[in-house]
Write a structure and sequence with these properties.
14 strands; Gfo/Idh/MocA-like_OxRdtase_N; 2 domains; 289 residues; eight-stranded mixed beta sheet; Gfo/Idh/MocA_Oxidoreductases; six-stranded parallel beta sheet; Dihydrodipicolinate Reductase, domain 2; alpha/beta
């Protein structure tokens, strides 16, 4: 059994709290929050609470960090440099410099870090990835966004990591080239990200300036089409127009499970890749074309 610490208890901290309870190999041992008194008393009856990162080190085997990205470098590096495995909510950071520092600490202290690019843990998306493994050339397109939220940092860092992560995962390599364009929107921000992988291309639309919530990803080759619609209630993956049944496991539950298994078995997979996550940050930080 892995004793997990959770740093941050906002919207995503609460999501992790629920998912940890669904993972057999994991137990939440401590929650760290700037003001622990705001954590509901029923939770404080069975989980330790603290404002100290050092207390998390004493109580946990590994930690999930669900705080604003401006804090990620300080918090993640503190734990990595102490030898504690880290699961980090996306985006990795607000700047490429901070992201590089986090992964340098991971490498220097030989401590794993998993960034929660949540769709890479979706059974439906992973089925799509297997289905298109030999397709070439491939045309990838996606829409990921909503009308909001409006945060202190750009919405390209809020929505973009999902789509770029999925495109790189499908292509199986870093892109040969990338461009980012600002798209006019009446409210919020919209960005068009174009990635080039040899003979294949990805055209991704992301941002908080959409009329409604969208999370659609499609790969095509010739007359073949594989689509992943995360907003569909059940039939999230279709291949050539036909529904392909997949497990309805929560992607967040699966992400926490993968992290816990990596900590207990010391076995990491491709989703722990520093290269993948640094590619994402460098692409999203490109000057607008």
């Amino acid at each position: 059994m892995i004793n997990l610490g959770l740093v941050g208890f906002g919207e995503w901290g609460k999501n992790y709290f629920r998912s940890i309870g669904n993972v057999r190999k994991a137990k939440l041992s401590i929650i760290c929050k700037r003001d622990p008194s705001t954590i509901p008393s029923p939770i404080r009856k069975f989980v330790s609470v603290t404002a100290s990162l050092k207390q998390v080190l004493r109580k946990a085997n590994a930690v999930i960090v669900a705080t604003p990205p401006s804090t990620h470098r300080e918090i993640a590096c503190f734990f990595l440099e102490s030898g504690m495995p880290v699961m980090l909510e996306k985006p990795v950071a607000e700047t490429v410099e901070d992201a590089e520092a986090i992964f340098e600490a991971s490498a220097r202290f030989n401590t794993p870090i998993l960034v929660n690019n949540i769709h890479l843990f979706s059974p439906s998306f992973l089925s799509l990835r297997r289905a298109v493994g030999s397709w070439e050339p491939m045309c990838i397109r996606s829409e990921g966004g909503n009308n909001g939220p409006f945060r202190e940092y750009s919405s390209i860092l809020d929505y973009g990591p999902h789509d770029v992560a999925m495109a790189i995962a499908i292509a199986g390599s870093s892109p040969d080239g990338a461009e980012v364009f600002r798209v006019e929107s009446e409210v919020g921000e919209l960005y068009n990200i174009r990635l080039y992988f040899g003979r294949s291309e990805a055209n991704l639309m992301v941002g908080n300036g959409m009329a409604s919530k969208k999370r659609y990803f499609e790969a095509s080759c010739g007359n073949r089409i594989a689509a992943y619609d995360d907003l569909a209630e059940k039939d999230k993956f279709t291949l050539d127009g036909s529904v392909v049944r997949t497990m309805l496991t929560s992607s967040l539950d699966e992400a926490v499970h993968v992290f816990s298994r990596a900590v207990s078995d010391r076995d990491t997979d491709w989703r722990f890749s520093a290269g993948l996550n640094l590619d994402i940050m460098r692409i999203l930080s490109l000057p607008l074309s």
